[in-house]
């Protein structure tokens, strides 16, 4: 699904202002004095190095007078929705607590953490009682994005296809939820903890051994294999088995994908799994109803309004880039424009 460009430009400008504020706090000492208030003995601290930039967070290393090192971690303004920032932080803190309590894995100790002043999330502290409840919650977010994002469709055909595809996926949740794993205890997962965040090389023979088998010490001595051979094949077998286990749990990937539509790769794999004839029949059934026609008409109006707003926002962006208006003026103008458009949609 295409991203909402006006909203993206607004978030980029907001992050620029946010970074300026954080940098000012670094320079004038407010950041360190603030961190001192969390130390058990209120020791002074100093900055160590610059910002550590991640995809979703910005971190700053702090060193206290007694040599203790802390890492301050802040959600990036443009990458984490304010609506979910509190939930994100609370889940990360709880995950670290569970790992420290239940395993011997070395993880950082959390000395202090906090939430934003405004919390519009509601009560998410109880979690989900079943895997099916969680899956239905995730797909409800997909429905919300499809309905509320003004450019979530490209035209009448994609509107029908995306609506019908989500309907089919929603109907399959009970079938695709294995009874054995529907109830607690649940595994602790992180959907961003993939191979790319763990290994340096994508080739199994190298990273499994933390070495490269092209080195001289890997050469055979006549018919005698090197000492690491048995260890390598043992780890390779584990690696392949774990990949197979993970591939069997692909429902979450389908639900959390940015766009679920028949032409997309995840959707086509599900179509193959269920059978092309079965899928196409369901697609026709779910895409040829009065409800769908009402949805398509509404989305086409949204798309037309979106194109007009995008032109205005791009004009404001050009004015900001040429210094004819300030970043603050840009944020105020775009925010008012988007809020007005949202209010019209709600009427």
In words, what does this structure look like?
This is Aminoglycoside phosphotransferase domain-containing protein. The protein folds into three domains: 5-77, no CATH class; 131-212 and 229-288, no CATH class; 292-346. Helix content is 55%, strand content 7%. It is built from twelve helices and three strands. The chain has helices at residues 5-27, 30-36, 82-102, 131-148, 156-176, 204-207, 229-247, 251-255, 265-274, 276-287, 290-321, 327-346, and strands at residues 45-53, 57-64, 69-75. A three-stranded antiparallel β-sheet has the order 1-2-3, with helices on one face. β2 (57-64) and β3 (69-75) form a beta hairpin. The longest helix has 32 residues, at 290-321. The model is unreliable at 118-124 (pLDDT under 50).
Which labels suit this protein?
347 residues, mainly alpha, 3-stranded antiparallel β-sheet, 12 helices, 55% helix
